[in-house]
Amino acid sequence: MTSNRPYLIRAIYEWLLDNECTPHLLIDANAEGVEVPQKFAQDGKIVLNVGPTAVEALSINNEEVTFMARFSGVSQLVALPVHAVLAIYAKENGRGMLFEEGENGPDEPGPKGKPDVKPPSLKVVK
Fold first, then answer.
1. What's the CA gap between 100 and 108, in Å, rounded?
2. Helix (H, G, I), strand (E, B), or coil: what is residue 6?
3. How many CB atoms lie within 10 A of CB 87?
4. pLDDT by 10s per residue, the chain, length 126
5. Contact between residue 50 and residue 44 where contact means Cβ atoms under 8 Å apart
6. Which domains does the chain possess?
């Protein structure tokens, strides 16, 4: 099976927009394949506003999230693998979903190439 993370990101994004909230992504700025302006990262993380008025050409596919955004007035392509998305949430109230750092999806190998087997868990995001 493929990872459910990209599907959840897309679903939460739509849910936030339907509720007139501003979606933000918390990104692991040091993850492999992340292309974001590092000078805006703090403690290896960066928060990105991905609302329709903040970005252009947003694409969330099963492998990566891409869009055009302005940083200090300069338009830049942002590309990041979905495994680098640590959370998607509403700016207004913090509602959304948190993903565990370093969490392997079902299609991503764990240590020594073996899939991680973890019991299901839910977390409350405030």
1. 14
2. helix
3. 19
4. 888 999 999 999 999 999 999 999 999 999 999 988 888 899 999 999 999 999 999 999 999 999 999 988 889 999 999 999 999 999 999 999 999 865 544 344 444 344 444 555 666 776
5. no
6. 5-113 (2.30.30.220)
